[in-house]
Design goal:
The complex is a heterodimer of chains A (321) and B (169).
Chain A: E1 5-8, H1 12-17, E2 21-23, H2 29-34, E3 42-45, E4 54-55, E5 60-63, H3 68-73, H4 79-86, H5 91-96, H6 99-103, H7 155-161, E6 165-170, E7 173-178, H8 179-182, E8 201-207, E9 216-221, E10 232-241, E11 244-253, E12 261-262, H9 264-270, H10 277-284, H11 299-315
Helix pairs in contact in A: 4-7, 9-10, 10-11
Chain B: E1 10-16, E2 19-25, H1 31-38, H2 42-52, E3 59-61, E4 81-83, H3 95-102, H4 112-124, H5 130-133, H6 144-168
Antiparallel strand pairs in B: 1-2, 3-4
Helix pairs in contact in B: 3-6, 4-6
The chains are: A alpha+beta (321), B alpha+beta (169).
The complex binds flavin-adenine dinucleotide, iron/sulfur cluster (SF4) and FE2/S2 (inorganic) cluster (FES).
């Protein structure tokens, strides 16, 4: 690890005036500093800031410094969100890692994490060895010629499905952005991952109230049953009445997309659908439209639709024929 | 050339096993290194040796389990820390340590102190999915079935102790 200066921010104002890299749980930042992928000269410990609190009274609000484990265990948190959190990382990591840090986590692409390799995301213009190399863990949706890396956050997929917003504070004031618009697909500038401006702090995550979000779930498919990133994951919420789907929210991610990926086409196809596996498979079949599989991950187009179908079946268990 | 930050040592005080340990550390020093290399936990490690064969010091915060194998920086630790050496009282093993011995929940013992600290948290928090809760603790010898059995034993004992305490009130 390169030498660096460490300071603690006592107030949000301190943080906004600092040029240091924000340190919350450190499970991404310190990890990547140890690998020399990130080399900030100054690190600012933000854990004393009052960015705490979980409220579920009208929609949901999570302070950016709330720990993943605490949000997961909080009663009344929509099931898709708590399930996505419980299926993330390990208990030790969930005890340390914050919600704000989770949304800002960097890709797990092994070339990105290896400073001896070229990587457009780490060193713009240096090339992308994943495209012609080992890419089983890489994305099929939202990719470009410059980068095919996934955004590995589980909870971000659930949050995007449920129209969550991030509250961002800077010296210029506070703005709110749908999480879906916060992330940027790589395009020709994979180094730009999101809309966060220099010196801007995520202070809160807000999930608008959705009465039927109690009927939501998160399915994560992976090589190991626990403590593993997703090959594919799906967050689904359903409004079911009289044996038919009135409305749906569907997002996928983990190992299939460069950013948490909302599937409005699948949502539209689910409207009015009956609760049968065939109807689910029909609707899910449009999920992989526009997908660009790579040499090592062609299986993900099938996996993608099957993961969505499994989430739908889980949610409607007992009520489909 | 990249600008290098100045390594300015930070004065901290770590609360380890109920003792306050003042320390001056470089910002990049991890909690694990601070424990093992700076605070000289050799004596404590010997105690761990009686409990569950020779094992490197692993720790957990008393508030909730954290992982020093992960890079938590010593200078950012705010909570009291309990290591495996802080579990037993005198010669008497902690019930979870006892359960690990009873159930033969280790082979080489390399992972054991970490397993025990996570197991203590699992028992205290009465978790429903023990396997998921413990999945961050890898065991190369694959002693998993016996570790699960040890946690079951300790949980049952904890529940019985609570019932007994309730009955005597
Ligand atoms: C072994 C391992 C397995 C993992 N498995 C999973 C998994 O299965 N699923 C999953 O979703 N994640 C997984 N993760 C990622 C983990 O969830 C993230 O590392 C964690 O959530 C980051 O949170 P943190 O508080 O530790 O962030 P930090 O490491 O402190 O910060 C991460 C980044 O966010 C910035 N940042 C932090 N807080 C703010 C803020 N409030 N405003 C603006 N910027 C901020 C930091 O400057 C830094 O760039 C895994 C990580 C590890 C190490
Ligand atoms: S996929 Fe993206 S992150 Fe991975 S090597 Fe290519 S450019 Fe870098
Ligand atoms: S007992 Fe050997 S690694 Fe677990």
């Amino acid at each position: 690890m390169r030498p660096f200066e460490l300071t603690r921010a006592a107030t949000v104002q301190d943080a906004l005036e600092s040029t240091g890299a924000f340190l919350a749980g450190g499970t991404t930042l310190v990890d990547l500093m140890k690998l020399d992928v990130l080399t900030p000269p100054c690190v600012l410990d933000i854990n004393d800031l009052p960015l705490r609190g979980i409220s579920t009274s009208d929609g949901m609000r999570f302070g950016a410094l709330e720990r993943m484990a605490d949000v997961a265990a909080h009663p009344g948190v929509y099931p898709a969100i708590s399930k996505a959190l419980v299926l993330s990382a390990s208990q030790q990591l969930r005890n340390m890692a914050s919600i704000g840090g989770n949304l800002m986590q960097r890709t797990r692409c092994s070339y990105f994490r290896d400073v001896t390799m070229p990587c457009n995301r780490r060193v713009p213009g240096s090339g992308c060895p994943a495209i012609g190399g080992t890419n089983r863990m890489h994305a099929i949706l939202g990719t470009s010629d410059a980068c095919v890396a996934t955004h590995a956050s589980d909870v971000a997929v659930a949050l995007v499905a449920l129209d969550a917003e991030v509250v961002l504070t800077s010296a210029d004031g506070t703005r709110t952005l749908p999480l879906r618009d916060f992330y940027r697909v790589p395009g020709s500038t994979p180094e730009v991952e999101n809309d966060l401006r220099a010196g801007e702090l995520i202070t809160e995550v807000y999930v608008p109230r959705l009465d039927w979000a109690a009927t939501s779930t998160y399915v994560k498919v992976r090589d190991r049953q626990s403590y593993e990133f997703a090959l594919c994951s799906a967050a689904v919420a359903l409004d079911v009445r009289d044996g038919r789907i009135l409305d749906a929210r569907v997002a996928v991610g983990g190992g299939v997309a460069t950013v948490p990926w909302r599937l409005t086409a699948v949502e539209a196809a689910l409207q009015g659908a009956q609760l049968t596996e065939e109807a689910f498979a029909d609707a899910a079949s449009v999920a992989a439209e526009g997908a660009h599989p790579l040499s090592g991950n062609e299986f993900k187009t099938t996996l993608l639709t099957r993961t969505i179908v499994r989430a739908l079946l889980e949610l409607t268990e007992g009520s489909h024929r | 050339m990249a600008i290098r930050g100045k390594e300015i040592p930070v004065d901290i005080s770590l609360d380890i096993n109920g003792r306050s340990e003042p320390l001056s550390v470089d910002p990049g020093v991890t909690l694990l290194d601070a424990l093992r290399e700076r605070l000289g936990v050799t004596g404590r490690r010997r105690k761990a040796a009686t409990a569950a064969s020779a094992a490197p010091a692993r720790c957990t915060s008393t508030v909730s389990q954290c992982s020093p194998a992960l890079p938590s920086l010593a200078a950012t630790v705010r909570r009291p820390v309990t290591t495996v050496e802080g579990l037993s009282t005198g010669d008497e093993l902690h019930p979870v340590q006892r359960a690990f011995v009873d159930q033969d929940a280790l082979q080489c013992g390399f992972c054991t102190s970490g397993q025990i600290m996570s197991a203590v948290a699992a028992v205290r928090e009465d978790v429903s999915d023990v396997r998921e809760f413990m999945s961050g603790n890898l065991c190369r010898c694959s002693a998993y079935p016996n570790i699960i059995a040890a946690i079951k034993q300790a949980s049952e004992q904890a529940a019985a102790d609570t019932r007994r305490a309730d009955a005597t009130v």
